[in-house]
Amino acid sequence: MATTIDISTFIEGGYNKYANWYEVDILGRIGYIMKTSARVDFSNDMEYFRVKYGGTPIFVNHENGSQEVVHLYQGQVFKRVSDYGNWHMVKVADGYGYVWEAATEPADDSSIKNKNNGLKISENKFKALDDLVVYDTSSGKRVPFATIKKGAIYPILGDYKKYANWYQVDIDGRIGFVNKSNTELQFSNSTKYFEVIADNLPVYAPGTSNVFVYLKKGEKFERVQDSGNWHLVKVGDKYGYVWKQSTKPTTSTNITNLNNGQVSNSRAFKALQDVKVIDTSTSSRKTFAVLNKGVVYPVIQEYENWYKVDVMGRIGYVNKSGTQRTFANSDRYFQVIRDNVYAVSSNGTEIIKLSKNEIYPRVKDDGNWHKVKINNEYAYVWKDSTQSVMNPNVKDLNSVYTIPKRKFTTNNTTQIFDSNRNVIGELKGNQAYNFIDIVGRWFKVDVLGRIGYVYMPATSSILSYYDMSLDEMLNIQMRVSPQTQIVNHGYVHENYINLMNNGNTGIVIANALNVRTTPSINGQSNSCGQLQKGETVEIIGKVGEWYKVKYSKSCGGWKDADREDVLYFLNPDNFLNYNGSEIFQFLKLSQYTGLTADEINNKILKGKGILEGKGQAFVTAAQKYNINEIYLVAHALHETGNGTSRLANGVQINGKTVYNMYGIGAKDSCPITCGAEYAFQKGWTDPEKAIIGGAAFIGEGYIHNGQDTLYKMRWNPDNPGTHQYATDIRWAILQANSYIGKYYSLLDKYILYLDIPVFK
């Protein structure tokens, strides 16, 4: 029967002094007990134990129970961390384990020669693919002292790359070595590279089943970081994930095409099919990855037939066949590659059709769209209907002109040409479009940043936008006393009217009541006749102390115009009937319209005295000085009394007969002589010279000064209240009705170039 011995009876060091005996003190006498006949209990201060039985396990507790991680060899001594009931707590792997106390006996450390004196475990670990013998090499020989069990994950001491065939480990404070052959290195946070062990290993886009690229078996790649069961990798300019179990840790050794700092240049391409990525660093030119169809991939450098790319830290080359060059944010141009491509507004309205194969500037990339500038607004072009241009050669770029707030309106579908007469755009019928300038018979326009030209006969009108409201315009006009001769209402003071019929009519109670053209007293300036006592008036409104009454008559002179009347004639919207003659107040007088001499002769000048048959002279004058032909004809007919005036038919001066068709230089006090002298100075010695030469004067003095419509002459919206040709609020429509419209009505067909004001 075994005897339990109190540790206090041992002579100091007596339980380890002899191999098979314990040295003890019994009542002051030294004695010896065979170890096989006794069991020694551990005290708390005992640091080491000796393994009595081979294969004694170290257990490690896990969530799913305990695991035998290491088996200890018989006779080997190990250090314990603390007593734990019937167990020793020991240091194992990167944590703690437990050894059954009864399988051990107290010992000291005198036999341990491979103590770990400060060497730290790394974050690198291996997995035991079989039971691994751990060797103590401190004696110069390989002495086994433990076994790491199959399936255990165990940390490596120091640098895992230090030894070619061995890993250094710590077994409860003792340094040992295990052979690498039956291990599988595990990934740690610091592992930078992995090797693919399954063919065509996919790299997935985050959170999806979409594949960026397939990796070839045996190839090594760089990873960004560990991500649980996945590697986080950099795929071009995006991140992706690789299934960790299909890889193993490795180093960059033997990777000959490592990317040492080359970055993408903002260029990219789209894979139209699966495309190979070639490693050209060796003569084998092997495929090390395959880009998946549909992937958009960034480019490091572009060559004639190849793209240089980075695939997870390695440089490769992709043949351009099977790819499509995509847009970089820095691209400023695109080429249209399909028919019926439109630039559209933000609400989807088609603005302009772009021509296939033409190149256009863009403002910026906007997702699936190009953001472009059309006139003063932004528009959008669908990116998939275009392609990027490597070395764009764009003609007629607009680098100078701003886009004014003025527009023309197309009659039908209208093409836009560049300076070489190539079609660069198309507008729909009845579409308003801004223009920069007028060049001959062409509108100069901007098409997404390119200069284009629209043939004026294909258009009908111009819209000129002004940075003021109609009410602001009216206020300015009222300050310069606009005048009228005819009214359809007047104002009478309320003190002289007795109301009747619920205020709809009134009776004059004054002996004679002045009717005013405006609701104020301004002497004769706004006096327009009188009403007699007892007369009945129809009341249509009231302004302050004044009743507005129906009152239609001529005032017998110029009078202050009422605000309401001024507003009516000032507002362009009241005169946009294209079938009426009042529209001619917006006729652009600074534009030749293409009438023929025969049309003018046969329809207008027949029977007009000396002007008869002179249609060609008017056409020449209109072309030369860019003046509307009908305006010139109307001006001449008015000034010459339909071709019958003395000045028009020739006046002798200094032995020469001279002609003056527009009354230029003539004065009320000197109508003939002064007009003839002016014609003599200009050399107008025949009717044609007078017609053509006089047109230059009209153009300079009336037309080409920014006021080239009757409306602009009257109201001058560019600088209202100044340089206005008349004070009569009806002046523009009277001229349109009596002259311009009258002569246009004689023609069978004609083109009108209108300039219609638009107020904000």
List the helices and strands and how they pair.
Elements: E1 3-5, E2 21-26, E3 29-34, E4 38-40, E5 48-51, E6 56-62, E7 65-72, E8 77-79, E9 82-84, E10 87-92, E11 95-100, E12 104-107, E13 121-128, E14 132-136, E15 143-148, E16 153-157, E17 166-171, E18 174-179, E19 183-185, E20 193-196, E21 201-204, E22 211-215, E23 220-222, E24 225-227, E25 230-235, E26 238-243, E27 247-250, E28 267-271, E29 275-278, E30 287-291, E31 296-299, E32 301-302, E33 306-311, E34 314-319, E35 323-325, E36 333-336, E37 341-344, E38 350-354, E39 359-361, E40 364-366, E41 369-374, E42 377-382, E43 386-387, E44 406-410, E45 414-417, E46 423-427, E47 432-434, E48 437-439, E49 442-447, E50 450-455, E51 459-466, H1 470-478, E52 483-493, E53 497-500, E54 505-508, E55 512-516, E56 527-532, E57 536-543, E58 546-560, H2 563-570, H3 597-605, H4 615-625, H5 629-640, E59 651-653, E60 656-658, H6 673-682, H7 687-703, H8 710-715, H9 731-744, E61 754-759
Parallel strand pairs: 1-4, 51-61
Antiparallel strand pairs: 2-3, 5-8, 5-12, 6-7, 7-15, 9-10, 10-11, 13-16, 13-19, 14-15, 17-18, 20-23, 20-27, 21-22, 22-30, 24-25, 25-26, 28-31, 28-35, 29-30, 32-33, 33-34, 36-39, 36-43, 37-38, 38-46, 40-41, 41-42, 44-47, 44-51, 45-46, 48-49, 49-50, 52-58, 53-54, 54-57, 55-56, 57-58, 59-60
